[in-house]
Amino acid sequence: MDSSARKLTRFIPKPLENIGRKLNPKQIITALTAIDAEAKAERLLRDDDAERKRVWLVIIVACICLLLVHYLKYSSVLAETIRLLESSFGIENHQWSREFRYHPYRELIGYLWWGAWNLIGFLIIPMLTIKLVMKQPLKHYGWQMGGVKQHWLGYVLLASPIMFFAFLVSFRDDFANHYPFYNLAHKSWLDLILWECIYIAQFIAVEFFFRGFLVNGLRIPFGSLSIAVMCLPYLMLHFPKLWLESFGAISFGFFLGILALRSKSIWGGVAVHVSIALMMDCMAMMQGKGFPEQLMR
User: How far is CA 83 from CA 99, 109, 111, 116, 118, in A?
Assistant: First the structure.
C-alpha cells in the first residue's frame, strides 16, 4: 500500500474498514484455505480406516434422514397414519379421521407433524448417531456457541442483503400469498405464536443437520469440499419453494457453511435463519391479511 492510500485509510471509520475487509473476495479464499489446513492437520492424527468408516456412517445416516423427512413430513401421511391406527384399535366409522378432518386446528396439527419429523430426522437421529455410535461430543458438530461472537459481522453481512431483498419483494402478491406457510396464522395470536415456535424449531434442526452433522462429519477427510457436498441436498430441500429462494439457497448455504466451520457453531446460522424467516412472515402479513386481532379463536 503506498503512502497516499495509507493516508486515505486513516479517514475511514473502523467499523467501515472492518466491513470492507469482510467483503473482500479474498477473505473467502482465506477462510477455505484455513479450513483445509485445519482438516489436513487433523487427518494426520486420525486412523484412516476408522475415519473412512465414520464418513460412510455420516453419509448413510444423512441419506436415511433425508428420506424419512421428505416422505413422512406431509399431513397426508398423518391422515393415513390415523387411518392405520383406527384399524389397529378397532375404531368404528372412521371417528378419529373425521375428528382430524374437521378439527379447527387441523392445518396447524399438520405443521406440528411436519416440524416433528424435521426434528426427528434432522436433529434427534444425527445426535443419537454422534453420541451413541460415534461416541463423540456434540460440540464437535457445532452444538456450542463457539466463536459466533468473533464472526458476528459475517452473519450480519450475510443476513442484511437477504432481508433488504425480502422487504422489496414483500410488496408482490405472490410473496404475501406464500408466507407464512401456515394460512391461518392471522386468525389469532395463539395460531401465530404456535406456528412460529414450530418454524423456529425446524430451523434449529435443519441448521444442525446441514451445518453441524454434515459439514463437520465430512470436514476432516474432505476439508472445505464438505461445504460443497452439503450445498447439494440443501439446495434440493428448497425446490418446493419460490425459485428465487431456491436459487439463493446455493450461495446462502455456502456462506453459512464457511461461517459454521470457522465459528465451530451452528447458532449464528440459526439466528440468521430465524431473523430472516420472522421478517418475511411479518412483512407478508403486513402486506396481506394483517396481524391477529384476538388472542384465541
Answer: 12, 16, 18, 19, 22
Round to whole Å and give the CA distance between 149 and 147.
5
**The dihedral of CA 118, 121, 127, 128: what is its sign?**
positive
CB 126 within 8 A of CB 65: yes
* Residue pointed to by grid coordinates 437477504: 162
Concatenate the DSSP letters of all residues of 12-41 into one string.
S-HHHHHHHHHH-THHHHHHHHHHHHHHHH
Neighbours of 227 (CB within 10 A): 27
Q: Hey, what's the cell of 290?
A: 394483517
Give the number of other CB atoms < 10 A from CB of residue 2. Answer: 7
What sign has the CA pseudo-torsion 232, 235, 239, 244?
Answer: negative
Full-model pTM: 0.89
Cα 222 to Cα 219: distance, rounded to the nearest angstrom? 5
Q: What's the Cα-to-Cα distance from 198 to each of 112, 119, 191, 240, rounded to whole Å?
A: 6, 10, 11, 19
DSSP 8-state symbol, 89: H
Give the position of cell 395460531: 191
- d(Cα 206, Cα 17) in Å, to the nearest integer? 33
Q: What are the angstrom distances between the C-alpha of 295 and each of 24, 193, 194, 241?
A: 48, 10, 12, 30
User: Whats the size of the chain, residue-wise?
Assistant: 297
- For CA atoms 222, 224, 227, 228, the dihedral sign is negative
Cell triple for residue 254? Answer: 455456502
Q: For residue range 188-246, list pLDDT tens digits in order.
A: 999 999 999 999 999 999 999 999 999 999 999 999 999 999 999 999 998 877 777 78
Tell me the per-residue pLDDT of 105-134, one tens digit each, with 9 for 90 and over.
Answer: 999 999 999 999 999 999 999 999 999 999
State the maximum Cα–Cα separation within the chain, in Å, rounded to a whole number: 87
